[in-house]
Amino acid sequence: MSKWEPKIAAFFCNWCTYGAADLAGVSRMQYPTGIRVIRLPCSGRVSPKFILAAFRSGVDGVWVSGCHPGDCHYIEGNYYARRKFALLKNLLEHMGIEPGRLHFSWISSAESTKFVEVAEFVVDSVKKLGPANRMIKEAPAAVLF
After folding, report:
1. 136 vs 46, 54, 123, CA distance in Å?
2. Could you report the per-residue pLDDT of 5-27, keeping only the tens digit for each?
3. What is d(CA 62, CA 101) in angstroms, rounded to the nearest whole number?
4. Measured between alpha carbons, how far is residue 7 from residues 13, 27, 67, 144 in Å?
5. 134 — phi, psi (to 5°)?
6. What is residue 4's DSSP assignment?
7. Contact 116/29 with Cβ under 8 angstroms?
8. What angle do CA 71, 123, 59 make, to 5 degrees?
9. What confidence tens digit (pLDDT) does each residue in 53-90 have?
10. pTM of the full predicted structure?
């Protein structure tokens, strides 16, 4: 029997974090395999509905990452994202989802080493919590995995 590995839905900004993930792959850096990347134009485009749908469809954790504040290709998209995420994290905790299942980071396209470090941190944090209890089950969701 194999060891359990968490499934992580990762919403990445096309311009920064996705570039860092690509650079890490091209550089043959090793990082956890349970991360499923959803590429978006900007972290500000991540709707709380996307995160809820990911949890509803069975992921154990969600990671949202984009450009550093002040360096957004869409001027202030990451500022909008930061505000949404602060509120959403409180809402999810109120719903019974552990805060350690939702992670946010700011990684530029040149920071492949930081990408690998954060990926390992996210997976380790979710792994410590164990499999998700699948608490959000009321409405059917599209299957992400």
Report:
1. 19, 10, 21
2. 999 999 999 999 999 999 999 99
3. 6
4. 19, 23, 23, 11
5. 60, 50
6. P
7. yes
8. 95
9. 999 999 999 999 999 988 888 888 888 888 888 888 88
10. 0.88
pLDDT band (50, 70, 90) for residue 1: very low
Rounded Cα gap, residues 9 and 73, in angstroms: 23
Query: How many CB atoms are closer than 10 A to CB 26?
Result: 9
Instruction: Note the pLDDT tens digit of each residue in 112-138.
Output: 999 999 999 999 999 999 998 755 555
CA dihedral 74, 143, 10, 104 (to 10 degrees): 80
Length of the chain: 145
33 Cβ neighbours under 8 A, 6+ residues apart:
5
